[in-house]
Write a structure and sequence with these properties.
Blueprint (H helix, E strand, L loop, with lengths): L4 E7 L2 H11 L4 E8 L9 E2 L7 H10 L4 E4 L2 H5 L2 H6 L8 E3 L3 H8 L1 H10 L7 E4 L4 H9 L5 E5 L8 E4 L2 H12 L10 E5 L4 E9 L4 E3 L4 E2 L2 E3 L3 E4 L4 E4 L6 H21 L6 E10 L2 E8 L7 H7 L4 H9 L14 E8 L23 E4 L2 E4 L2 E4 L3 E9 L2 H13 L18
Parallel strand pairs: 1-2, 1-4, 2-3, 4-5
Antiparallel strand pairs: 6-9, 7-8, 7-9, 10-11, 10-16, 12-15, 13-14, 15-18, 16-17, 18-22, 19-22, 20-21
Helix pairs in contact: 1-10, 5-6, 7-8
Bound molecules: adenosine monophosphate and glycine.
């Protein structure tokens, strides 16, 4: 008999709802908790109200509920050291935690660290220069050494807002100074200036125990608010998997040039990395270049990646924590998946909350994952900019998108907005 787990998922988005949905299908889960969760997770697990960065509150919840496995969704608690906190606590050290420690979290938490890592291990990426207030002149000279557009990245976490792409050199120099002067707070004390890469973006995901890894399904997300990829950047308005332009030849290049070298680099740096690596790639002339590493799964990417995985998810998580991923073989569904985000009117800028959502109990051919929702007076109401992620399968992406649009046409709340053109390039 294999061990059963009481599992806690940290986070409150559609990514965490998708994790909960998948874990719930395992015969190896006893009690499932999500902290803080949302209205959707409360239907399949027990929500625990706490802040994801309040490690003492998490410890109390873990001990009270005999939790012996923790899966961390968002980057914040990971970069803040939740794994180190568990490993250094006598009462928590035997709890399996699926998230890298602070050392591994630098891949996302410090863009200068991750660029230096890529260069050291010969992982293809854009040319760059690291600038602080002490070498501003070097930064300006670097900006003058190539043609626009210019890419400026605040070194630390800046809630997804720390990347600027600027066409004018003078404006780039001004923005560089503004970031160094605190535009993004401490995250911008160091700035990475990068050359702009032309191409098409996709993301690859691995689950690693630090030595072995399994390759998860790839995905492509749609970051802009408007159809045809126009308007402001968001956390993501939809995603598809598989990515039709990923040929076996390109996959081979991604494996050898990016993934093997990344895992090798982590080992060579003595980083005991247990968790997900989400690698944002630019494909230029058929070759992969790393845009960024994230040390967690993506949202909304998770909502198409997770439904394509056939394995028992608890088996995969346990093997990650126990350095046994070499004993796991990943099985992926052939079907295509698409997810469409239903957002609040005004997102990603100002939006209102507390709008009653109707139609959630309709019969549907989709998976309706909750993102920003909560329960109020026995109604499910909106509680964020991104409200739902509606995932569907199909024999191709067009079919999958069609099903999600049909499902969304039967769900409503005041100001609901979603893109109907997710996957438009693959028609
Ligand atoms: P990030 O916040 O690091 O995900 O970056 C946001 C977006 O900026 C990426 O998804 C890319 O579309 C774009 N980006 C970042 N770095 C580069 C680069 N060097 N060349 C072209 N586009 C980039
Ligand atoms: N969808 C992008 C992210 O999760 O960072």
């Amino acid at each position: 008999m294999s061990l059963k787990y009481n599992i806690l998922i940290i986070g409150s988005g559609a990514r965490e709802h998708a994790f909960a949905w998948k874990i719930k299908q395992s015969s190896r889960v006893n009690n499932l908790f999500v902290a803080p969760g949302n209205a959707g997770t409360s239907e399949i697990a027990e929500n625990i109200q706490l802040s994801v960065n309040d490690f003492e509150a998490i410890k109390t919840a873990v001990l009270k509920n005999d939790i012996n496995m923790v899966l961390v969704g968002p980057e914040d608690p990971i970069v803040n050291g939740i794994t180190d906190f568990f490993e250094n606590d006598i009462k928590l050290k035997d709890v399996l935690i699926i998230a890298p420690n602070k050392s591994g979290a630098r891949l996302e938490g410090s863009k200068s660290f991750s660029k230096q890592f890529m260069v050291k291990y010969n992982i293809p990426t854009a040319k760059y220069h690291i600038v602080t207030e002490h070498n501003l002149e070097e930064g300006i000279a670097f900006l003058s050494s190539f043609n626009p557009p210019y890419v400026l990245k605040a070194d630390g976490l800046a809630s997804g807002k720390g990347v600027l792409i600027i066409n004018d050199r003078e404006e780039a120099i001004n923005s560089l100074k503004e970031i160094l002067n605190g535009k993004f707070g401490k995250a911008g004390n160091t700035v990475v200036i990068e050359q702009f890469m032309e191409g098409i973006e996709m993301s690859t995901f691995v689950l690693t125990d630090g030595i072995n890894y399994v390759l998860l399904p790839e995905a492509k997300d749609y970051k802009r608010i408007g159809e045809g990829d126009t308007g402001l950047n968001t956390g993501g308005m939809g995603a598809v998997s598989p990515v039709p332009f990923l040929t076996p030849e390109l996959q081979k290049k991604i494996d050898t040039l990016v993934i093997h070298r990344t895992i090798h680099g982590l080992r060579a740096e003595n980083i005991n990395f247990k968790g997900f690596i989400f690698i944002g790639l630019m494909i230029s002339n058929g070759n992969p270049f790393v845009i960024e590493y994230n040390i967690r799964m993506g949202d909304p990417e998770t909502e198409v990646v997770i439904p394509r995985i056939e394995n028992d998810f608890v088996d995969l998580l346990e093997a990650t924590a126990l350095h046994k991923l070499n004993q796991q073989q990943i099985k992926i569904k052939k079907e295509a998946f698409a997810t469409i985000i239903a957002a609040s009117k005004g997102y990603p800028e100002h939006f209102e909350k507390d709008k009653i959502i109707t139609g959630l109990n309709n019969k549907t051919n989709s998976l309706v994952f909750h993102s920003g929702t909560t329960l109020k007076n026995e109604h499910i109401v909106t509680n964020g900019g991104r409200v739902l992620a509606v995932s569907s399968s199909g024999k191709n992406i067009t079919e999958a998108v069609k099903t999600s649009v049909e499902t969304l046409n039967n769900i409503s709340f005041d100001g609901i907005y979603f893109r109907k053109d997710i996957g438009y390039e693959f028609k």
